[in-house]
């Protein structure tokens, strides 16, 4: 048996040596062929990479889209020129509408955040039919596919609303000029993250600088000839107001002795709450109309003054056909929407215009604005005349 085992081992070793000798040369040949193929592939790829690097060096840094949608690769120089041209188009539309350079900047930031200022013809998963610089959706009433792909048309829609009737868009956001741009943009675009656009300030400002756009250009906070507004500012006023006054500013609110402290709400006879800004302004409107006690001429009980929170007053005014304007007059209501100015929260704010100065600025009296008065249902007269541009709108009482 030992002899047989030894013979078997010798036979196996001989067979292994034979197979190695036979197949080894084929393995060697295969390795050589593989190496040649690899060298050929490298020769083809490396020049292509080198050429791309040279193009990048010649054109500057490649812009990488970081908005809601991707951008097809483009030569850096051509990409930049498209951005500049589109920024100029947006600025041109803002200027044509009589809006300030600040409106141009907000719109350009928006377009950069949505499409990197490139007029793209596709959307994303959240908005598959979104198109154009502002990624506006035809299915949401922003216009036809052709319209949202037209940079000028799309810019106008963003600025004054999709119907181009000045009832929407940026100009409809009360106090947008004093707001953080990303927050104002969010109210128009209505995306999930209100801080989304802050990441694009620097990039948009760079394009603005390259395009030579004057963001300090003067203009109105609202588009000219908006609904309920006067056509032109009266003569004799640089800021649009008609000089005049109604009495001397004073706390003549008749309910202050029974007005509760902070956080306590008791209904007043006009349908509001004692000490709130709405109650004080409702009183002033009744006083000016000669109604100094219950039953008041203007009240919820009378069925003609159920305005809701201060933020809702402008809409209520317009629904009755009462005049809304960006031009102040004595006796008008100064109105701000939600978070529309300093000291103003989600419920908005209303105040009383007791005087318009010779320079067209407004003397404002108010209740319950803790930025100007002690906390909790207190009266204040603003220490300095207010620029009408800092007021969301002026609501004219009936007869004004």
TrEMBL record:
<feature type="domain" description="Peptidase C51">
    <location>
        <begin position="252"/>
        <end position="396"/>
    </location>
</feature>
<dbReference type="InterPro" id="IPR007921">
    <property type="entry name" value="CHAP_dom"/>
</dbReference>
<feature type="region of interest" description="Disordered">
    <location>
        <begin position="374"/>
        <end position="400"/>
    </location>
</feature>
<protein>
    <submittedName>
        <fullName>CHAP domain-containing protein</fullName>
    </submittedName>
</protein>
<keyword id="KW-0614">Plasmid</keyword>
<keyword id="KW-0472">Membrane</keyword>
<dbReference type="Pfam" id="PF05257">
    <property type="entry name" value="CHAP"/>
</dbReference>
<keyword id="KW-0812">Transmembrane</keyword>
<dbReference type="InterPro" id="IPR038765">
    <property type="entry name" value="Papain-like_cys_pep_sf"/>
</dbReference>
<feature type="region of interest" description="Disordered">
    <location>
        <begin position="219"/>
        <end position="253"/>
    </location>
</feature>
<feature type="transmembrane region" description="Helical">
    <location>
        <begin position="26"/>
        <end position="46"/>
    </location>
</feature>
<keyword id="KW-1133">Transmembrane helix</keyword>
């Amino acid at each position: 048996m030992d002899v047989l085992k030894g013979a078997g081992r010798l036979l196996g070793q001989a067979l292994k040596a034979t197979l190695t000798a036979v197949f080894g040369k084929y393995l060697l040949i295969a390795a050589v062929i593989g190496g040649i193929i690899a060298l050929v592939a490298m020769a083809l790829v490396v020049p292509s990479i080198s050429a791309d690097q040279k193009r990048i060096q010649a054109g500057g840094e490649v812009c990488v889209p970081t908005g809601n949608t991707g951008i097809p690769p483009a030569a850096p120089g051509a990409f930049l020129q498209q951005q500049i041209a589109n920024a100029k188009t947006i600025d041109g539309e803002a200027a044509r509408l009589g809006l300030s350079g600040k409106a141009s900047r907000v719109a350009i930031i928006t377009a950069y955040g949505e499409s990197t200022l490139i007029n793209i013809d596709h959307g994303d998963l959240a908005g598959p039919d979104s198109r154009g610089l502002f990624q506006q959706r035809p299915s949401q009433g922003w216009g036809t596919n052709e319209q949202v792909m037209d940079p000028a048309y799309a810019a106008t829609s963003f600025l004054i609303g999709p119907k181009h009737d000045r009832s929407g868009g940026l100009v409809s956001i009360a106090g947008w000029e004093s707001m953080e741009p990303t927050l104002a943009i969010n109210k128009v675009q209505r995306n999930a993250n209100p801080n989304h656009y802050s990441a694009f300030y620097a990039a948009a400002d760079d394009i603005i600088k390259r395009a030579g756009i004057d963001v300090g250009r003067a203009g109105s906070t609202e588009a000219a000839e908006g609904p309920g507004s006067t056509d032109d500012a009266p003569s004799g006023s640089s800021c649009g107001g008609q000089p005049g006054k109604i009495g001397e500013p004073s706390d003549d609110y008749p309910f202050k002795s029974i007005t509760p402290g902070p956080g306590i709400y008791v209904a007043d006879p006009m349908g509001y709450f004692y000490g709130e800004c709405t109650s004080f302004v409702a009183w002033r409107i009744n006083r000016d109309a000669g109604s100094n006690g219950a039953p008041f001429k203007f009240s919820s009980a009378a069925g003609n003054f159920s305005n809701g929170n201060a933020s809702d007053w402008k809409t209520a005014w317009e629904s009755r056909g009462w005049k809304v304007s960006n031009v102040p007059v004595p006796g008008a209501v100064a109105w701000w929407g939600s978070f529309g100015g300093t000291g103003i929260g989600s419920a908005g704010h209303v105040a009383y215009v007791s005087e318009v100065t010779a320079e067209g600025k407004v003397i404002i009296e108010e209740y319950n604005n803790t930025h100007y008065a002690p906390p909790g249902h207190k009266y204040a007269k603003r220490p300095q005349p207010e620029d009408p541009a800092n007021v969301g709108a002026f609501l004219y009482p009936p007869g004004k």
